[in-house]
Structures are given as structure tokens and as C-alpha cells.
Amino acid sequence: MRSGLTYADLLERFPEETNRRIELIDGELLMPPAPSVRHQRVVMKIGVRLHLHAERHGGLVLANAMDVMLTEHDVVQPDVLYLLPEHAEGAERPLTKLDLAVEVSSPSTRRTDTVRKRDLYERHGVAEYWFVDLAADRILVHRLEGGRYAEPEVLGPEDVLTTPLLPGYSERVEDLLK
């Protein structure tokens, strides 16, 4: 249900110094609690490994607290995001394009990540969405096909994460999750 809040409202109510994660989905204000240590470690591992890929192949990787304004009522801050080289040039806050969004699970955000954000990313043409499920030690990879996310590729610790979005990117899931 849309409450009517916009990105302009967020900027007015919460100064840049705010260290809280603040998002809007359909105009509803979301302020999840601080994540666990494991959550942060996995975010860092994924962010660093994607960053190394971006240094070799181009693009931009950002982790935590970067505003992505999909509409004035939909502003998210993925745990990790990747912009392809053609979208990275001149990127500034708020970003308005997103090629890869990564959300790492937390008990308090699980439903938002698996339903609301997944639907939002699909609706706005985010090419890939990775949901890192720490409770099940797996990664669900959603890829757009014909404007919709296909059934997710489910990767367990023994699998290797690759993506056609980032040729040459390859990581053992176990290495990312431990």
C-alpha cells in the first residue's frame, strides 16, 4: 500500500549523515535493523570479488547504502550492486539504473528481499538479482528472460556461480558463504 513518501521526502527527513539503511517500496518507509556479522562478511566477500572483476572488465560495484531510485516512490539500497561499464560512467547518487542487485538474507528482511524487492527488480528490468540465503547456505540467481524472472538457479556450497551478465566471473559459492 503506497503511503505517498517520495525520494525527496527521504532527503528532507534524513540527512546524509544518517548511517541507517533507509528504503522506500511503493512509498512505504523501510528501516531494517543492523545486519549480523556473517551478513556483513558475505556482503564484503561478494563486493570485493565483484569489484576485482569490474577492475579487469569495467563497471562499478558498490556495497551498502547507495540509493537506487527506480521511481520517486521506490528507492532501494541493495547490499551489493553492479553497474555495467555503459551504465557506470558518471554514476552519482541516486543511481537510476541497476544491472545486478545482490541482497543477503537477514531474518527481518527475508520477506521483503524474496518477494517485494524481487518483484520490484523484475518490474524495473534489473537483469539479475541474487538472493543470498544464509539460513540455507545457497544463492538464488534470478535472470530476466522476456521481461520476467525465470525460475531461479539455485546454487549450493558445492556449486560455482557464473553469469552471462559478467563474462569471466566465476566464484565457488562455498567461498562466498563461509
Query: Considering the protein shown, what is the CATH homologous superfamily?
Result: tt1808, chain A
Class from helix and strand fractions: alpha+beta
Tell me the overall shape: globular
> Which parts are unreliable, with pLDDT below 50 for 5 consecutive residues or more?
none
Tally of helical runs:
5
CA-CA gap between termini: 38 Å
Mean pLDDT: 92
Q: Fraction of residues in helices?
A: 25-40%
Main β sheet profile: 7 strands, mixed
Oligomer: single chain
Total of domains: 1
Order of helical and strand elements: HEEHEEEEHEHEEEEEEH
Structure commentary:
The chain contains 5 helices and 13 strands. With 178 residues, it is of the alpha+beta class. The chain has one domain: Alpha-Beta Complex (tt1808, chain A), CATH 3.90.1570.10. The strands form 4 sheets. Strands 3, 6, 7, 8, 9, 10 and 11 form a 7-stranded mixed β-sheet that branches. Strands 1-2 form a two-stranded antiparallel sheet. The mean pLDDT is 92.
Describe the structure concisely for a colleague.
This protein is α+β, with helices and mostly antiparallel strands and 178 residues long.
